[in-house]
Amino acid sequence: MAKVICAGLGPGDPDLVSLRAARVIGAARQVAYFRKAGRPGQARRIAAELLHPEAVELAMEYPVTTELPVDGDEYNDALAGFYDDWAGRLAALPGEVVVLCEGDPFFYGSFMHLYVRLRGRVELEVIPGIPGMAGCWNATGEPITWGDDVMTVLPGTMPEAELVERMRAADALVVMKTGRNLPKVRRALAAAGRLDAAWLVERGTMPGERVLRLAEADPEDCPYFAIVLVHGHGRRPEVRA
Fold first, then answer.
1. What three-state secondary structure class fits 199?
2. Residue 64 confidence (pLDDT) above 70
3. Domains in the chain, please, with CATH?
4. How do residues 72-96 score in pLDDT, each as one tens digit?
5. What is the rounded distance in angstroms from the CA atom of residue 118 to the CA atom of residue 231?
6. Residue 231 has pLDDT above 70, yes or no
7. Which residue in 143, 191, 226, 235 is deepest, having the highest Cβ count within 10 Å?
8. In contact, 106 and 121? CB cutoff 8 Å
């Protein structure tokens, strides 16, 4: 039986890859990773210095990314076929293959779609990684939650009205999948009365990292790797001089 190991790579800085993941990647002779067609791939970039010189690389190129509506049948059918195909390819490989995954594989990671297809067909191991949002909130220099704060994580792809409702109810707030959704996210935060407290972190822990108040950002110019944050302000002991 083949063995598939998914190595979580963390938020983007290669120095934040775990020792366990680094050891497994460095020993691997078969390495697979997701990427947009024609691009080198973010996971490949993070792990570049760790790859064994004799490793065979398998680039899993998405058939579609932002070209179609994410809630449409055509989008879902294209990705379902893509994951079905690659699950079959990985299961048929001899020996061990390491799949690279940004962030943590079980937190909005593409590997999850392979995992549910491979379960029971191959031996599986998942190595956790630091979630991208953790790298981003550390980049702001402020704690994200205090005391009894409830942290809410929202995908920016949600309908605007639902974003507003959930933003109003949150203490600390993380909005992922921003990119082209940033204008909608900004409107929702304004409607929820949270815009002035919101931060935008672009390319957190990566080259070109930028941290700024969301109210000061251009909503029409947002990279794919960007997260919106609102810090909690819950219970805490008083700071004494």
1. strand
2. yes
3. 3-130 (3.40.1010.10), 133-230 (3.30.950.10)
4. 677 788 899 999 999 999 999 999 9
5. 38
6. yes
7. 226
8. no
